[in-house]
Sequence to fold (582 residues):
Amino acid sequence: MKNKPLFQQMTIVGVGLIGGSVARSLKKHHQCATIVGYSRNEKELKKALALGVIDSYSTDIKRAVQGSELILLSTPVGAYKAILDELKDNLSENTVITDVGSSKQSVINAAKAVFGYLPPTFVPGHPIAGTEKSGVDASIDNLFAQRCIILTPLPETNREAIDKVRAMWQAIGAEVVEMSPEHHDHVLAATSHLPHVLAFSLVNTLAQMNEHNEIFRFAAGGFRDFTRIASSDPTMWRDICIENKEAILELMQIYEKQLKVLEAAIQTGDADKILSLFSHARDARDEHVIQ
Amino acid sequence: MKNKPLFQQMTIVGVGLIGGSVARSLKKHHQCATIVGYSRNEKELKKALALGVIDSYSTDIKRAVQGSELILLSTPVGAYKAILDELKDNLSENTVITDVGSSKQSVINAAKAVFGYLPPTFVPGHPIAGTEKSGVDASIDNLFAQRCIILTPLPETNREAIDKVRAMWQAIGAEVVEMSPEHHDHVLAATSHLPHVLAFSLVNTLAQMNEHNEIFRFAAGGFRDFTRIASSDPTMWRDICIENKEAILELMQIYEKQLKVLEAAIQTGDADKILSLFSHARDARDEHVIQ
Fold:
């Protein structure tokens, strides 16, 4: 039984892991009749077309968005401002825009810088999903199943626009929650941005050591898991560090203090303190993190 | 075709994840006719017996080692000295001893403190394998398949004893390498001890935050992987931090410096520097770490 799709046409700006996975998921669920790709990188678009992820593409933004009910921005956040600049005069009033950027205040600021305000049809969003891989080759049709999507609309955001974006994510199996952009940035700095920053730094620490080939050889499964996120897209993570700078720096400082507490306990051989720190961490993780 | 087993009888001291997995693996490969368990915790031994991991047990060390060709120490390293003290007068000259401790210089020092020297039949070892789980319930019969085992014998260690321990690990599918205890401790501080210390500290940082319930809710797959090792046994990791203190502290300081470099780049908005740090980390991981 095929119901009427949610959208007749939508445009995906930046068809990589996330954009490609949204497209594949919508296709699987028959929720969008035509998916148009846009990028400055035609090679990426050709590949997405060949893979059947998109139905057509254009490297001309005006053509790419013509007739689309929904535009999804899924490039690294650092590229948003330039894209919105190009979009500005090619946007019909009813077209809903949403995005998948990992920092939300900066996205809203970029939109404000271009439009003078956050357009009421722009619904900032962020899917809490992804892998360490990147590119359309890595896109899959169930990346958002049972995953959480955070929307951060402002009071002036159009309710119908929010509901449309919400419906899109729900149609591909995700759960949608709303919170303020400030709160989003604070929470994600802790659960995602800080861990990435720590993992990149750990790999760099080891790569610096003289015997680094040998060192990586003796890395067990725990190390592979721990550093998997250090294989993530460097450009995307550079942009996140720039865009969510304040929250990330605050967390890094809290983390460094925490590390110093442990370091002091190791230094003085305070076995009870070390055990209490480790036990506390294990209990917190086992209580809160679903395996 | 059943060949003659390598060992007629061995004793496993501490039948948890590692000791239990050695026992299960040897049984699977028919390499030990009788496996005797020893522990101060009789409940653990009863469970291991019920699970078929060991064939018999004793809480009397003299009985537990009588007639065994090989004794495997697989308790947390902090307990070794007390165990060796008890073993000292109950050891026949030909009995080979090995262990699975994550720090090797401290194990050798513990043996020297008890015996006055490292007995030539004591072959210090460390399997680079494990999971974040602990206890005999978590033991499996293929934990060491294709994994690396590091032996750190001294020049005075008996070659036959080394070969016996080597044969045991190879019989259950592992690859054995030898290196000095100092080098082992340095390498493992980097690939295993530092990541654990960082993961425990990350979870504690997040657990401190007011909204910690919510924060853990929005943790994606990368976070789960990254913090998995924070579910490891706190007692075991306390002992490792005490026993390999110098190498761990040195690595923590190098790591903190690395983190400060990134922090400064984020602070000043140095996009090129951030990108270069992240790219370098991704390349190093992708080059060296087998997925």
